[in-house]
From TrEMBL:
Protein known as: Glutamyl-tRNA(Gln) amidotransferase subunit A
Biological processes per GO annotation: translation
Keywords, alphabetical: ATP-binding, Ligase, Nucleotide-binding, Protein biosynthesis, Transferase
Record PROSITE patterns: AMIDASES (PS00571)
Organism of provenance: Anaerovirgula multivorans
């Protein structure tokens, strides 16, 4: 197949069926076809093309694409067209990938259901009465519905892994610093990472190879030596792999059907020669509290740039600069974004800093230590990705605390900065996908992918 045939095929499918899924905020039809044509021409000439030559991809709408609207699913950036590409986008283009569209998300990546988008809610392709998860729900739905073989999202507290789990896909949150954040519109800068959604572990390995690497445009980018090859390492067996099972991740609140799917997968791993052992990792409650304090604090600072002055939405009615700022924000930010900004401003304010933000930072170092300790005894940690199955659209919208609980197994990973992958591991009786999470030590992506591959 030529790149143009493949691209046309996916675009046709997206045009035909996205009306009922709403994975995309914008399609990039003309440019995608032009790019595909260019790839075909280069291949015809025998030129060398990249790792993802001619592969259509979808990109979450908080990752900057030059000349293409990047809205963060917010009225604030509804007409924002970035003058530059995010480093990840630049790398993907160099690898020959064809960007076919930008995907829906929770506004500024705040949420777990993709219902917080200012434009529309995305539906789960497995059952359109259910949410696809969030905040990268559009990217997950795009791959699950067959609109693109690969999609990219961002994960601050679970926003790749949880939607991957809800949509029956592989989703990877890389080690903090492995993938450049330059051009990713910031939510919680010390937690954010970009990663892929794919149908297979092999595609995930390939995608990571394409986007990872040191970048001078991101000061938190890792400067040490990294693994360059993941795909060729996937074949190895997992005999002797030490897998820790944190018992706190399997207690009250875990859906019994998900618990059963975990047990079945553990048996398979044991049969293949992995050594499984239960241990205690009592970080759940503190991780959730620390996460919502740290991520909201960072968000309140990051989102202060939207003032209606330099770019983004500007209110039509104001007198003086203060009213300009207040009215622009009041009119253009959604409810959840305002809630996070207020929470963040509160925990950072001088009177409450010690009681909240400082405590959260202490918890953060404890959580890091707990993971470091665990990785002295285990190569990998196994848990469910989410305690619940994909829920009904609208079900948790009025109850933010219930929504926050959907991330109970994922947020601690971002706090510690370690990598984790969610892989499909069966279905509920109601035919909804279930996801299993493997957590690894810093820069152990190779091992994570190997373990994930063994369950495929
Ligand atoms: N659902 C979490 C939140 O609302 C995580 C979001 C994310 O990873 N971007 O903050």
């Amino acid at each position: 197949f030529s790149a143009i045939e493949i691209t046309k095929d996916y675009l046709d499918r997206a045009r035909k069926f996205d009306g009922s899924i709403k994975a995309f905020i914008s399609l990039n039809e003309d440019a995608a076809l032009r790019d595909a044509e260019a790839i075909d021409a280069r291949m015809l000439k025998g030129e060398e093309v990249g790792l993802l030559a001619g592969i259509p991809i979808a990109i979450k709408d908080n990752i900057c694409t030059r000349g293409m609207k990047t809205t963060c699913a917010s009225k604030m950036l509804e007409d924002f067209v970035p003058p530059y590409d995010a480093t990840v986008v630049k790398k993907l283009k160099e690898a020959g990938a064809i960007i076919i569209g930008k995907t829906n998300m929770d506004e500024f990546a705040m949420g777990s259901s993709t219902e917080n988008s200012a434009f529309t809610a995305t539906k789960n392709p497995w059952d359109t009465t259910k949410v696809p998860g969030g905040s990268s729900g559009g990217s997950a739905a795009a791959v699950a519905a067959g609109f693109a073989p690969l999609a990219f999202g961002s994960d601050t507290g679970g926003s790749i892994r949880q939607p991957a789990s809800f949509c029956g896909l592989v989703g990877l949150k890389p080690t903090y610093g492995l993938v450049s954040r330059y051009g990713l519109i910031a939510f919680g800068s010390s937690l954010d990472q970009i990663g892929p959604f794919t149908r297979t572990v092999e595609d995930c390995a390939l995608s990571l190879q394409a986007i990872q690497g040191q970048d001078s445009m991101d000061t938190t980018s890792y400067k040490g030596k990294i693994e360059g090859q993941y795909v060729s390492e996937l074949q190895e067996d997992i005999k002797g792999l030490r897998i820790g099972i944190p018992k706190e991740f399997f207690q009250a609140g875990l859906n019994p059907e998900i618990a059963k799917a975990m047990k079945d997968s553990m048996e398979v791993l044991e049969k293949m020669g992995a050594i499984l052992e239960e241990f205690s990792l009592p970080i759940m409650d503190s991780a959730l509290s620390a996460y919502y304090i740290i991520s909201s604090a960072e968000a309140s600072s990051n989102l202060a740039r939207y003032d209606g002055v330099r770019y983004g939405y500007r209110s039509n009615s104001f007198e003086g600069i203060n009213e300009l700022i207040v009215n622009s924000r009041t009119e253009a930010f959604g409810k959840e974004v305002k809630r996070r900004i207020m929470m963040g401003t509160y925990v950072l304010s001088s009177g409450y800093y010690d009681a909240y933000y400082k405590k959260a930072m202490l918890l953060r170092s404890k959580i890091k230590d707990s993971f470091a300790n665990a990785f002295e005894s285990y190569d990998i940690i196994l848990s469910p990705t989410s305690p619940i199955l994909p829920f009904n659209i609208g079900e948790k919208l009025e109850d933010p605390l219930q929504m926050y609980l959907a991330d109970i197994y994922t947020v601690s990973i971002n706090i510690a900065g370690v990598p984790a992958i969610s892989i499909p591991c069966g279905f509920s009786r109601s035919k909804l996908p279930i996801g299993l999470q493997f957590i690894g030590n810093h820069f152990s992506e190779k091992q994570l992918l190997k373990a994930a591959y063994s369950l495929e």
